[in-house]
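User: Reviewer 2 asked us to show a designed sequence for the structure in our supplementary figure. I'm pasting the structure tokens here. Could you produce the per-position amino acids so we can include them in the response letter?
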């Protein structure tokens, strides 16, 4: 049996839970409406697998999902809101579209799903900001970001949840806002992969070239494994940057001939982390599993089984983002 590293490798899983709040236009709704509705099948399936394999998962959840009724949602909206140069980015312009409650409008309400997540041991409720806030878009300000995060913290606290981890929507990491995060109790956030391919940028700065490079990197190791040590994360200071390692892309029938490459890319990186006592941070959206659920769950099961193998062979651990931050805070005192 191979010798175990001094520090066990760790698997971190974080999910960006947003429903329709993250896809704010009719064209996207036409393309992904089935995926969004499919979340109500995907989340129970994922929770069952997480529980079976003992996987601790961070669910970065949009604050607007923490409601059962529209009247409660409206009562909790922040007074200061982002005034994006592109008004289509603002979810507040869609309030007239929102139905009266979750039963009548499954696109905008997620309280029943949040209840399911909280009922499973090891699941961390984190924040994806209150309104799926875009931290790099023109027109938003530190003042509106603070008001947004305060609203997210407040509604979660009313339901007995203390938010400690944050995932920036569309991975628009903004270092200027970390002090605000710290002041409001956030102890960790998910940073981007450390490669020019994954640098934080707004939508205007996205290019087909970089999108293509990210797609190719999902199948071929262009940018490395993106595994990190606890020492690296500790040096980032609080809130701790727990960088992403890999986006778990949804299964694609069009790209099915390359499926073996995609899966092996992730398995190899997990093994690298386990052998060297590093952290591998996998992430995706629940709506990525909303279509082709059977195929996507088969991939997730293979990853979970590989984790179980690495756990038995190298002592690999499953931890949430909060687990890592709590440990580093304890060691700092």
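Assistant: Here is a per-position design you can include in the supplement:
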């Amino acid at each position: 049996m191979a010798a175990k590293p001094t520090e066990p490798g760790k698997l971190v899983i974080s999910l960006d839970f947003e429903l329709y709040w993250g896809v704010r236009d009719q064209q996207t709704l036409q393309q992904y409406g089935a995926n969004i509705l499919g979340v109500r099948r995907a989340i129970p399936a994922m929770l069952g697998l997480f529980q079976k394999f003992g996987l601790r998962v961070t669910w970065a959840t949009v604050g607007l999902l923490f409601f059962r009724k529209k009247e409660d949602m409206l009562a909790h909206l922040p007074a200061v809101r982002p005034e994006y140069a592109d008004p289509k980015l603002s979810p507040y312009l869609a309030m007239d579209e929102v139905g009266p409650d979750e039963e009548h409008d499954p696109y905008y309400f997620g309280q029943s799903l949040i209840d399911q997540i909280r009922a499973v041991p090891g699941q961390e409720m984190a924040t994806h900001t209150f309104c799926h806030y875009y931290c790099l878009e023109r027109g938003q300000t530190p003042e509106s970001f603070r008001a947004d995060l305060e609203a997210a913290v407040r509604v979660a606290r009313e339901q007995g949840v203390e938010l400690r981890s944050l995932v920036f929507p569309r991975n628009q990491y903004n270092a200027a806002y970390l002090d605000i995060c710290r002041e409001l109790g956030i102890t960790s956030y998910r940073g981007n992969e450390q490669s020019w391919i994954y640098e934080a940028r707004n939508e205007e700065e996205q290019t087909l070239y970089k999108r293509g490079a990210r797609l190719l990197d999902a199948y071929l190791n262009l940018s490395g494994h993106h595994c990190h040590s606890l020492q690296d994360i500790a040096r980032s200071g609080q809130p701790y940057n727990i960088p992403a390692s890999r986006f778990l892309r949804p299964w694609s029938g069009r790209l099915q001939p390359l499926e073996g490459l995609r899966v092996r890319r992730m398995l190899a990186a997990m093994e690298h982390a386990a052998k060297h006592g590093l952290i591998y941070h996998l992430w995706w959206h629940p709506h990525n599993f909303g279509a082709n659920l059977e195929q996507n769950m088969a991939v997730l099961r293979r990853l979970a089984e590989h984790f179980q193998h690495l756990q038995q062979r190298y002592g690999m651990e499953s931890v949430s983002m909060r687990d890592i931050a709590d440990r580093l805070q304890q060691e700092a005192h």
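For the response letter, you might also mention the following. The chain has one domain: 10-332. The longest helix spans residues 26-53.
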